[in-house]
Specification:
The complex is a heterodimer of chains A (457) and B (306).
Chain A (H helix, E strand, L loop, with lengths): L2 H15 L1 H26 L5 E7 L25 E6 L2 H10 L3 E7 L11 E5 L6 H22 L4 H9 L17 H36 L2 H7 L2 H37 L1 H17 L4 H24 L2 H29 L3 H11 L1 H8 L1 H6 L4 H6 L6 H8 L9 H29 L9 H11 L1
Chain B lengths: L1 E12 L2 E12 L3 E5 L6 H8 L7 E6 L2 E2 L8 E4 L11 H11 L4 H14 L15 H13 L5 E5 L7 H16 L3 E5 L3 H7 L2 E6 L2 E7 H7 L4 E7 L13 E7 L3 E7 L6 H8 L5 E7 L3 H10 L5
Parallel strand pairs in B: 3-8, 3-9, 6-7, 7-8
Antiparallel strand pairs in B: 1-2, 1-4, 4-5, 9-10, 11-13, 11-14, 12-13
The chains are: A mainly alpha (457), B alpha/beta (306).
């Protein structure tokens, strides 16, 4: 078997066999699943019923109404978890509170002679702070009732109000030729996720390469290995082996997440449906007038469908291969540099000197992200997406927007430059690597390094 | 016939000349001692032989032709700084290293089982290296070095880290390997083992070969005509030596008198015997050759130039 294949195999097998690999492999999908499931679970969780006593001196919030059971849009409406009861005076309310443990708080709306409309209200509690959802609901209902009272006073119907508040003009950005909408927000979001992912992968697996090199050096096994394998073969074997570990990990993540979601949805589909319906019902119940509510819902639906439409407007046939390309080759470019840096270190602690500075080009590109997203075809974006050390991140920020026709060539140019730079870079890295792996204490003699490097070749 | 020959090898690190005009020849089937104080350039030379680095000038010949990268499969090298992957299993690691030397997985496993058995570590195949004692790690490292049955073996301080029992085991294995036809380059500071094992040596000091040749020849050339004579002790009688002969040291026990006599140039041991015969009863006489240790110290302290 070819020696480089042996090295790749060892790097891959030893890493994949480590418990940490499997812990990470299982933990990430579990965390993702949790991210998905926890909000649903929380919304399903039975919430303790709380009672709020309303003391309304102003009379605006339904306090003067005789019959509490009549629901109007100008009084507090009890929800599934919160019961609103009216009390005439604060004294009475306090006495009630003393008697009934269910009463968690008293909402006191003070009347001020000077103001026609009350400007503040107070939620009193005894020992326990009222739960957040109670505070939210009270606040929401206060605003709603106040609004409805004002609407009534000015003779505006709910429908008119809904019309006013929900009508807005949408600014869209459209391609002149295709007539398709640009969906800039969705594309920026996608670019951000992809570029950060690339940065993260390069940094994480690059650091692994570096640690692998240092491990061999501090173990002193390096001297035995380089007797059988050329340093270049060893370095490339390590780089490729770790790349395969990374790819395996990603594939497992995708697969496990997919399987996990499918299994849960299949077995517990009723729960999910229930949760969703319940979630909606709760929202409906607290949402005041039907018309407003429907309009709000419609608006929400519009946003969702806009995102969906935005996502479907993205040319995934281009983005996926481009992402994979820059993902793999960006890693290869940096991994060789990390290997060379690792060869100059004696211990794991030394590597900390290098791990950050090496990723500065990528980090800088990430920091310039607002500029690139602001103008994906601007000069800075063009330059950054062509330089091989920044292009993996910069190109991922640009590609979701689509390159303008006259700049299409840049995608190929950038890819070509990256591909050309890799052998060049690995050649330099291999020289540094070869000259450094058998020397110890080099960092202390940084000044001597250049001399001896020249002489050694 | 030389298996390995170095011709005018020179190697520089920056302004520092690590090796300067090194010419040595290692006879096929011999044990060759590469000696020298720390920092003399031994490891640099060994790395050149292993093709880990390249000489700036000169060339290395194997079987009389310039070495190529493929020749490393004919070399087994045990570096002074031992090292194995600590977290890897012993057997797996040994197979991996053997595969890198060109053995097939099956061959490697088969041979390893035999060696593990011989070194009594067969129970440790599935343990990681860090679970092994230092001595056992050394054994594994030795096995890995010789497993592919190289023609040329290079041992750098092979006995360091071994207890006397295992050091003897190792010594016997090295002699065994030589019997099977391997050539051994042996770098060490342990001069006693040089005298015991080596046929030829080269002493490197300050980047140059300052002394080389067969061990016997060298010791003889450093001979000061020193003889040790043991005679039966005769009470109250002073022994008279021939003219020009001097006693360097004398040790008297109840029955015997041991003298170290330096014979002057042109003198012979026979003259001493003739003189002594009538005086006392001679028990033994032998020539004392200087130890490699003395020669080493003497040569290095002289500043290196022959």
């Amino acid at each position: 078997m070819n020696k480089i294949l042996l090295v790749i195999r060892r790097e891959f097998v030893t890493r994949v066999r480590k418990p940490s690999f499997w812990i990470l492999t299982i933990l990430v999908p579990v965390l993702l699943a949790a991210l998905y499931a926890v909000p649903i679970y929380l919304s399903m969780r039975p919430i303790e019923k709380s009672v709020v006593l309303v003391v309304d001196e102003s009379g605006i919030f339904g306090g003067m109404q005789r019959d509490n059971s009549v629901k109007t849009n100008c009084s507090f409406a009890s929800t599934e978890n919160i019961e609103y009861r009216y009390a005439a005076t604060v004294d009475y309310a306090m006495r009630e509170m003393g008697k009934d443990d269910d009463i968690s708080s008293i909402l006191y709306i003070r009347r001020r002679a000077s103001d026609a409309i009350p400007t503040d209200a107070c939620l009193y509690y005894k020992t326990d702070l009222p739960p957040q959802h109670v505070r939210f609901d009270v606040d929401k209902q206060l605003q709603r009732i106040l609004r409805n009272q004002l609407l009534k006073a000015h003779g505006i119907t709910d429908e008119e109000y809904a019309l006013i508040s929900n009508t807005k003009i949408n600014l869209r950005t459209e391609d002149l030729e295709t007539g398709r909408e640009a969906f800039l927000e969705v594309k920026s979001g996608l670019g951000l996720i992809l570029s950060v992912l690339i940065f993260f992968v390069i940094f994480m697996f690059g650091a692994q390469v570096m640690r692998g090199v240092v491990e061999e050096k501090s173990n002193r096994i390096i001297e035995v290995i380089v007797c059988s394998v050329k340093p270049f073969q060893l370095m490339m074997g390590k780089v490729i082996g770790i790349a395969m570990v990374g790819l395996a990990q990603f594939l497992l993540w995708f697969a496990l997440t997919g399987v996990g979601v499918a299994v849960v949805q299949h077995n517990k589909s009723d729960v999910f449906e229930q949760a969703r319906r319940k979630h909606n019902v709760t929202e409906v119940a607290t949402k005041g007038s039907e018309a407003t509510q429907q309009m709000e819902q419609a608006a929400e639906m519009a946003t969702v469908s806009e995102v969906v439409e935005g996502i479907s407007s993205i040319n995934f046939k281009v983005i996926v291969p481009v992402f994979l390309f820059f993902f793999v080759f960006g890693y290869l470019l940096y991994a060789t540099l990390f290997a060379a840096a690792g060869a100059m270190c004696d211990t794991d602690t030394d590597t900390q000197l290098f791990s950050l500075p090496l990723t500065i080009p990528l980090l800088l590109t990430l920091l310039l992200m607002p500029v690139i997203i602001d103008s994906p075809s601007g000069t800075l974006s063009q330059v950054l997406s062509l330089i091989p050390f920044t292009s993996p991140v910069a190109m991922m920020l640009r590609v979701p927007f689509g390159l303008p026709p006259d700049q299409q060539y840049q995608l190929y140019l950038s890819a070509a430059l990256l591909v050309i730079t890799i052998p060049l870079c690995s050649w330099i890295a291999a020289r540094i690597y070869r000259n450094s792996i058998l020397r110890y204490g080099r960092l202390r003699f940084l000044r001597r390094k250049n001399n001896s490097k020249l002489a050694d070749n | 016939m030389y298996l390995l020959e170095s011709q005018h090898i020179e190697k520089n690190f920056g302004d520092f000349r690590a090796l300067d005009d090194i010419n040595i020849g290692v006879r096929e089937g011999s044990i060759f001692g590469l000696l020298g104080p720390n920092g003399a350039g031994k490891t640099t030379l060994i790395r050149l032989i292993n093709r880990i680095s390249r000489p700036d000038k000169g060339q290395l010949l194997l079987d009389g032709r310039p070495m190529t990268d493929n020749d490393v499969s004919q070399i087994g090298y045990l570096p002074e700084e031992r090292g194995l992957y600590k977290k890897m299993k012993v057997g797996e690691q040994a197979v991996y290293l053997a595969q890198l030397k060109g053995l097939s997985r099956r061959d490697a496993t088969e041979r390893l089982k035999k060696w593990f058995n011989r070194f009594e570590i067969d129970g440790w195949w599935d343990h990681t290296i860090e679970e092994l004692s230092k001595g056992m790690q050394q054994k594994v490292q030795f096995i890995v070095t010789v497993l592919h049955e190289p023609r040329l073996l290079i041992f750098d301080e092979p006995f360091s880290g071994f207890d006397p029992v295992n050091a003897t085991l190792l010594k016997n294995e090295i002699v065994n390997l030589r019997k099977k036809g391997a050539t051994v380059i042996f770098s060490t500071h342990n001069m006693a083992s040089v005298e015991e094992l080596c046929d030829d040596i080269a002493l490197i000091n300050k980047s140059r070969v300052v002394l080389d040749g067969s061990v016997d020849q060298i010791r003889r050339s450093y001979s000061r005509n020193l003889y040790e004579v043991v005679v039966k002790r005769c009470e109250g009688q002073k022994i008279i030596l021939p003219e020009g002969f001097s006693v360097e040291s004398c040790n008297i026990t109840d029955n015997e008198e041991t003298m170290r006599v330096v014979i002057p140039d042109g003198g012979k041991a026979n003259d001493l015997l003739t003189e002594l015969l009538p005086q006392c009863q001679i028990l033994s006489i032998k020539e004392i050759l200087p130890s490699m240790n003395d020669i080493f110290i003497q040569t290095v302290q002289k500043g290196g130039v022959r």
